[in-house]
Give the backbone structure.
Amino acid sequence: MFMKKNRSHQTISLISISSSSSSDSDEDEFNTQLNPNKKQRVEAVLPAGFLDPIRPEKPTVAAPPITGNAMVPVREEINNVPAAATAEQGKQTAVTSNTAAVVRNCKQFWRAGDYEGISNGGDVSLADMDHVRVHPRFLHSNATSHKWALGAFAELLDNALDEVCNGATYVNVDMVMKANTKMLVVQDNGGGMTPDKMRQCMSLGYSAKSKMANTIGQYGNGFKTSSMRLGADVIVFSRCRGNYGLSTTQSIGLLSFTFLQNTGKEDIIVPIVDYEKTGETWNKRLKSSDECWQRNLETVVQWSPYDSEEELVGQFNFLEDQGTRIVIYNLWEDDEGLLELDFEADQNDIQTRGGNRDDKKLMTIANDHPSSRRFLTYRHSLRSYASILYRRIPLGFSIILRGKEVEYHDIVDDLIHPQKHVYKPVACASSKDPNMSAAVTLGFIKDAGHHIDVQGFNVYHKNRLIRPFWRLWNASGSDGRGVIGVLEANFVEPAHDKQGFERTTALSRLEARLIHLQKTYWSTNCHLIGYAQRRHSKKPVSPEKEEASPPNADDKSNSKDNTTSAPKSNGKKGQKSSPVVRERNLFEAQPAVNHNTSSSSSPLRVAPESMFPPQDAQPSNMLVKIEDVNKAGPTPPFSSLTEMVLKLMDENRNLRNSLTNALHDLQNEEDKNTTLKNQLQDATDIIQQMDQEQEKFVTSFEEERNRREQAQQHMQSRLKEATETIEGLLRKVKMLEAGLH
């Protein structure tokens, strides 16, 4: 871990983002004298310098932009008004400014962030007002928005992709070693950052992308949250080609939680140094004084992985005429003392520990079923996640991960039996803006026939994947399996970590619509992948009504009985009332019949023998149909009833025998199933044992390879020393020969 280097170091100045080049800015903030014109503050036990007022600066009409070589506290500053303004004018201006602010304010929370600061900070004099300070702990709490480490990588990839408009053709993510410590490097060849933009990048909330087309970033917070989520410290090298008559510049900025924590800072201080190219020479680019610039450089060298200015400047050799190189070091560890990120499992990938990766059965399924692989691996594999991170990759742009290009993958190519739908929010149904509608592609994954539990919607926002495999329909059983959806919804706003959406009415309506689409698609097409077709248990209706009924009407009729009711009598003469046919089980108790009574008093008559099934019929068809009649009928003779009872007894005996045989066959099948399970368990144990042996072999092979590499390095070092000794001896021989002559 890179810690404080043992060297002398002066006190770090706390300089405002918008501070001028006055000598007051170079003094220590915590030694600042109180303003004599300020009212006496109430004494309380507070940290030194907490909420001290900003000292009045020299009268200026507008503060300069965020430039220079200052160590910048990440906080917002408001500039002063001209000194000539009277107190009364200040009050009037404040009222006017506040009134304007009320007019501009948005009443909706999710849109209130579209705030753009005024270049001169407004016309309100705030010389004696306290400014909000940002404690270094905020860097950590701000980074907790990324609960998933790979989501932090996505933020850095977004920033590189946004540079396509400035000529970026690649972004390279790699791991490098420095003093036996692993560091992350993210580098692109985009337009780079000017000194002003470097300071905005290190500050909170500055973003010009929200109003730009074809860009992903919008909150001005992604770089801070992502870098601090992956490691405690980050150093940025950026070179910007001079355009429109400006000179080429390069800047180095350090955002170090280790530095702030170990020095006990109570404000976020970011040392930055700038260089400017004059001809073919790089010179210091000063803001205030050479002393201030040098103090920033010493701080960067002391708390960075690099031991000198030459080594720092040497990092620009990795860049061409323009670009940005981000180095994240002091990477976070898990509870077991291992790095959260695993660089050893795959030499061309960066993975997170735990999750599906440790489930060998799931990894076997992922290897055997390529269409479902990304669903099973995107949570722990950066290569898998990056391949589906964008709906479209700009032509000529590539993502390189540890020396190997990431192959772009379109999830739609994994679907079979696809269907396309267009969804428009209710409030925007009449809008012709393509961003106010979503084209939904729905289909089965190609491996759905293997009944793998893979389902969900991949929802993109402005080309960026926000919710991968979003599972909305949590049905019991196997319903919904294999259904994958892809859509781009630009009418809902993503959360700050870009791993979910803000809970709005538009999102709730979208969720309901997607659930309906998935249910309809599944119930209509599930038989295509081997599931039983869902039958519609409906009340009998005419064919015309069946065609007009909605496709999901079966959801309301699943619980209906299978009983068919006859229509009521209309009371017209000459028409008989239709009997109500009731189905009873064969073993249902039969009502006693009094044969001495008249035929008119018998409420029942037994159907003829032809209505009974034969003796070899299946049990499911053994039903006795009894008809209720309204008219009198003759009672069957006793002999007929006796024959019927005997026949029923024979059929009952046959059914019992058939049931006994079926139970015997079922027991045999269960025994076979148990045997197969035992065999499968034995095979699994053998495979696990072989895997362990293979891992031991691989480990021993790696140890042997490392030993050989160390031996080779040792031999090379000895050879180098011997060569240097020989060269020294040769030089001495030549000197002796020259002395003899």
Notes: The chain has 14 helices and 21 strands. Residues 21 and 696 are 63 Å apart (CA to CA). Confidence is low (pLDDT under 50) at residues 8-47, 49-104, 119-126, 537-638.
